[in-house]
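Discussion board: Methods & Data

I've been asked by a reviewer to show the raw model output for two of the constructs in my manuscript, not just the figures. I'm not sure how much to include, so I'm pasting the format here to get opinions. Each protein appears as its amino acid sequence followed by a line of discrete structure tokens. Is this the kind of thing reviewers expect to see in a supplement, or should I convert it first? Here is construct A:
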Amino acid sequence: MKIFVVVLLCLLGFSLTFQGYGQVKPGRLLTNQQISDLVDSVSASLKKHYIFPDKADAMVKYMKAQLQKGVYKKLVNPQQLAQQIHNDIRGIHYDAHLHIAYEPQMQAPKALSPEQLARARKEELSAEKENNFNLQKVEVLPGNIGYFRFNGFTSQTAAAQATLNAALTFLSNTKVLMIDLRFNGGGSATAPLSSYFFKDKTHLFDNVNTFSKDTLSFYTDPSSTTGLVLTMPVYIITSKNTASAAEAFSASMQALKRATIVGDTTLGVSHQTGFFPLGNGFLAKIPFARPVSTSVFKDWEGTGVIPDVVITEEKGLVGAQEIVYRDLMQKAATDKEKKAIQWAINDLKASADLPNPEPGVLNNYAGTYAGGINFFVEGGGLRCKNPERGGNDVFKLKPVTDHVFVLDENVQVEFVKDLSGNYSSMNMLWKNGNIIQRNKE
């Protein structure tokens, strides 16, 4: 696999240094020999690098036929010729990653010197640190649900390891972990994250490429997690923008039945691409590697990773939380556990800023309850003064239903109607599932 690694480094160097090399004046016209040379160069690059050899052969055959017919020799403008060849090969086999272009500023890029490569790596590390290695948010949501928003897979895995470990350690005591990849466009290796979810070394998936006859296998590495193993259920939230490495992580976790995917079908970008100079200012972008499909793991190119539970983009995180709470409720073993989950569900509903019930309904709840807790109507909503919280602060209650409200970060209240039809008591619903009844004085 040494050849494969070297190629990737060369491609990195190419992408970092394409500007400013081999400038060719625009507006030039091509000779018949240059047109013929381009067809030969495209053919050679496709046959050598394209991940589907049979498709490459079909593309080459069609280009040769077009050249014989004189189609290309009419196109002496390089941009027009590049576009025609681009359209022709895509017409034989459509591949969104496959491009032929006239980009004279990108021809014959120079390899990076060791000093340039070191400087580029240093600049890349600085930029990654500035963005906190794409680790955007870590939070514990009601119901002890861990939330981890992760916007990209960094290539600086060694430098990012401490930050990743700290984030996941913070979430290690949560009941369920939600990993939000809706804004994750991919990046580099996924194994550093995957390794936290498997106790033993586990095979994730295989890749094949056109630079080597070997298959590249990806595994988790338990030794990289400093002993931290996360065993809680995992939910991965996806969107149409979830792409590339983020799809690889999602697909492998799904195939290994280690995560439930909720959200939208992902973008469908699995094939790795490289830039290949064709001479005379022309450039090809060609997919050279792809994941290997198995009975449980499918190459997601063009199809995306299909979620286990579909939720609309509009529902987003709230929709994912609803799925998690629903599943937790189904698995709850005790009544107290169910009440704690219901508390979290109520809190989620209240976060939508539901409209207050009519004042006539709210007036039924007004009054002082045991312990001196006073409820009153003001500004179209229900208010509370609680001596147990100092007595002077006024709490604005957020409606969940017409008779259930969120009081504060720990307590919700449920107003209870007696047999005579009057609201003569209320239940204080605590976050941990406890319930305390208070009668109206």
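Construct B, same format:
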Amino acid sequence: MKYQDVTNYVIEKYHVHPEYLWKKYPSFAVLRHKENRKWFGLVMQVEKSQLGLDGQGKEDILDVKLDPKEVEFRQTSLEFLPAYHMNKTNWLAIRLNQVDPKQIHDLIEASYQLTQ
């Protein structure tokens, strides 16, 4: 799954349009509820070196908010990382090119429900 796939999915499923809040980070898209304005996701393209990954170039990631126990459990897998620029107890970074789209959709839904 790619960055654009996530934003398209969220627009279609939740009728939420990504918000680009920072000129310095034009590829950082905030996903938040219309009603309460709480964030349920942050889609980013981040240099692999900033994520502690080998290689050059950027990695498409999605931060989602989850139960702390689930965050801790999932971080044992290479497909997931500690959240980038978010509270690492409650947020998890998903490596979009490493995780099945169905699982990504499920994690977005969990984050959406948790932040309502």
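Answer (T.O., handling editor elsewhere):
This is acceptable in a supplement if you add a one-line summary per construct. For B, something like: The mean pLDDT is 96.
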